[in-house]
Specification:
Length: 299
């Protein structure tokens, strides 16, 4: 993985803590004496595609553990009313498999416990969820990693249980160039002579995830070329077009996600509403006029 020095340092720190933790509590046997509150929780903070998930995988790998991934956003939205039960199940299954528990997209946890509007049913459920999560965290002996996009404003009780926050920043030019390089195979990927990763890194200020998607897209286009397999190569143009596509696709996603907040879209919606109302008034007037005309004619 290509990471800025700062991120790498705090990750290594976290890893050292995990290693010592398992030494103390497993091999030194203290886990058998003290069974509560031994877990370690970390929070990986950063924008999408900055490597939080693969980092969690790498950590699990280096510890020789399985990684159990729970998409928190999904658990919350799909299982209304069932969320606490699912959280308990996730912790149970991580304990059984001795797996590292990874809560992806965990932003929803942040600031959920509220006393002000606790009378609202969904708020009450959110409070229960956070309480259950806190309780499980306390009882869990393993390692939990949360991944959040926002610099989440965690509930203080929750914050206390997080050992460290690891920041994943968007990569700079240097890192982007290296990420482009590690996404291709050093000897097997057929690159054309004109490929210039430095230029791509300078042109596109994107995340590692975007670079990965662009490389796969460029390779697919190059492979679809009608030339014989030996003549097929990935050119600079393939990479550039693929990256433009990736960026465009993301822009569309964002537009539909934030549709209601887009002033242009809102203006059009308002205009359509006004036209609709005008048309309705016009139609009503016409009908009234026709009725009046009919009455006059009958008389
Ligand atoms: N710093 C990085 N170094 C190397 N590859 C990266 C990096 N960041 C992202 N990637 C690539 O992008 C893909 C998506 O990253 P991911 O870990 O899913 O990001 P996140 O979980 O932060 O959204 C990874 O599989 C990897 O190929
Ligand atoms: Mg991820």
């Amino acid at each position: 993985m290509i990471l800025p020095a700062e991120t790498r340092r705090s990750l290594e720190d976290a890893l050292a803590q995990v290693r010592n933790h398992s030494l103390i509590f497993t091999r030194w046997g203290l886990g058998e004496r003290h069974s509560v509150g031994l877990g370690l929780a970390f929070n990986f903070v950063g924008p999408p595609g900055t490597g939080k998930t693969i980092c969690a995988e790498a950590i699990a790998n280096s510890l020789g553990m399985k990684l159990l991934v729970v998409n928190y956003a999904e658990v919350e939205s799909m299982w209304a009313g069932e969320t606490p039960k699912n959280i308990v199940a996730a912790f149970r299954s991580a304990a059984e498999q001795r797996a590292l528990l990874f809560f992806d997209e965990a932003d929803a946890i942040a600031g959920r416990r509220s006393t002000a509007v606790a009378s609202l049913p969904y708020q009450r459920e959110a409070n229960i969820t956070v309480n259950v999560l806190l309780h499980e965290l306390e009882a869990f002996n393993g390692v939990v990693i949360f991944a959040t996009n926002l610099a989440a404003n965690f509930d203080p009780a929750f914050e206390r249980r997080i050992r460290a926050h690891v920041r994943f920043e968007m990569p700079g030019v240097e890192e982007r160039e290296q990420i482009w390089r590690v996404q291709i195979h050093p000897s097997k990927t057929p690159l054309a002579r004109d490929v210039d990763f430095r230029a791509l890194a300078e042109e596109f200020a994107v995340s590692g995830g975007d670079i990965k998607n662009a490389v796969l897209k460029a390779a697919a286009t190059a492979a679809a070329d009608s030339r014989s397999e030996r003549a097929k190569q990935i050119h600079q143009e393939h990479f550039e077009r693929a990256m433009a596509d990736v960026i465009a696709a993301k822009a569309i996603m964002q537009q539909s996600l934030f549709r209601d907040e887009d002033p242009f879209v809102r203006a059009i919606a308002t205009m359509q509403r006004r036209m609709y109302v005008s048309a309705l008034i016009a139609a009503t007037s016409l009908i009234v006029a026709l009725i009046a005309l009919t009455i006059v004619l009958i008389r």
